[in-house]
Automatic annotation (TrEMBL):
Residues 248-341 form the Moybdenum cofactor oxidoreductase dimerisation domain. Coiled coil: none annotated. InterPro entries: Ig_E-set (IPR014756), MoCF_OxRdtse_dimer (IPR005066), Mopterin_OxRdtase_euk (IPR008335), OxRdtase_Mopterin-bd_dom (IPR000572), OxRdtase_Mopterin-bd_sf (IPR036374). This is Sulfite reductase.
Length: 360
């Protein structure tokens, strides 16, 4: 990692660390408790960038009200040079913007068998986490994870926590797309979006992008907090015995059909035409469309990915006769992973339409 020199930073002596001093920037948790704002239906997500009003919100324990003037981020743990920094110092550091899909995994207390399509596509701006770690100089032999702390606290699903804490493997933390973000779609982060500063982990589920960020700590093990142990672990679908669990990290291939709209009536055409969006941790390289519940599939056209944005696909499929049709779209990523027809949280979408002749 090579970057320009950072703005002046006061490194922390080992005996000078005041535990949790960064949490003094918290004014209140308001409103308290779980909150969710569902996104519009897929056919309404027709803009390339999802505006704030159309982007889902998920808040586990309540929204942190933060004093931006006293906010600081502490970087510590298994590093050579731990340090704190304020918002002004963060904004003076090299920044970048990453356009990325943003997806909610869904409820961590129900089986992941239904696709909830809590999805959007936004442009984040901030400082690469890789850059902050280059300043701190992590111990690469022992430091295997980066823990991230949010300023929120409270109770979720009957479990209390003094902070929202997640972890990333060091390899993902060092990926250039992972940001310490302070803007979304060109605007400062609001309280509801985790402002003034949040972690953003493109390609991974939103639960990993800690809001109201206040501490990053390089550690040898995974976090023992409830949001990595009690919640957000799932049965690994590749385990034939159905026993092994895995963290809710990488996003599997998924898609939505934006056009045609559900229950749309198309008159006088011999073709079903439409478009949608596909996304995943790895680039989507193929999207197929079926009109017969998966018996046959027709290849769609897919726009290649530039960063981590959702990918536009379009299709035009010939029909032999008028009638009712259920359109399904199936995405496959570059690793070969493919959307299942049913039974998983990323199962294929289905849109029912009616094709009619001009004589009917």
């Amino acid at each position: 990692m090579s970057y320009v020199h950072p703005p002046p930073i006061d490194f922390i002596e080992r005996n000078g660390v005041i535990p949790d001093s960064e949490r003094n920037a918290l004014i209140d948790i308001h409103p308290k408790g779980f909150f969710i704002r569902h996104p519009p239906a897929p056919h309404e997500l027709d803009e390339a960038l999802t505006p704030e009003a159309s982007l889902f919100q998920t808040i586990h324990m309540g929204a942190a009200v933060v004093d931006a003037s006293s906010w600081k981020l502490v970087v510590d743990g298994l590093v050579e040079r731990p340090f704190p920094m304020n918002l002004e110092q963060l904004r003076q550091m090299p920044s970048k913007s990453v356009t990325s899909f943003h997806e909610c995994y869904g409820s961590p207390i129900t089986p992941p068998t239904k696709n909830v399509w809590r999805i959007g596509n936004v442009r984040w701006t901030g400082v690469p986490l890789q850059y902050l770690l280059s300043i701190a100089r992590p111990d690469r032999e022992r430091g295997l994870f980066v823990w991230s702390d949010g300023l929120d606290s409270g109770t979720f699903a009957g479990v209390s926590a003094d902070r929202y804490q997640k972890d990333l493997p060091i390899e993902k933390a060092l990926s250039p797309e992972v940001l310490i973000a302070y803007e979304m779609n060109g605007q400062p982060l609001t309280k509801e979006r985790g402002g003034p500063v949040r972690l953003v982990v493109p390609g991974w589920f939103g639960t990993n992008s800690t809001k109201w960020l206040c501490r990053l700590s390089v550690q040898a093990t995974r976090s023992a907090g409830p949001f990595t142990t009690v919640f957000y672990n799932e049965l690994d679908p590749t385990d034939s015995k159905g026993i092994r669990k895995r963290p809710v990290w990488k996003v599997e291939p998924n898609s939505i059909i934006v056009r045609p709209r559900p229950e749309e009536v198309v008159i006088g055409s011999q073709y079903v035409e439409g478009w949608g969006r596909a996304w995943g941790a790895d680039e989507i390289v193929r999207v197929e469309v079926s009109l017969d519940h998966g018996d046959t599939w027709n290849k769609a056209s897919v726009v290649p990915r530039k960063q981590f944005e959702w990918q536009l696909f379009s299709f035009r499929v010939y029909i032999h006769r008028p009638g009712r049709y259920d359109i399904q779209a199936r995405a496959t990523d570059e690793s070969g992973a493919q959307q299942p027809l049913l039974g998983r949280r990323n199962h294929v979408p289905t849109v029912r339409i009616y094709m009619r002749s001009r004589d009917t």
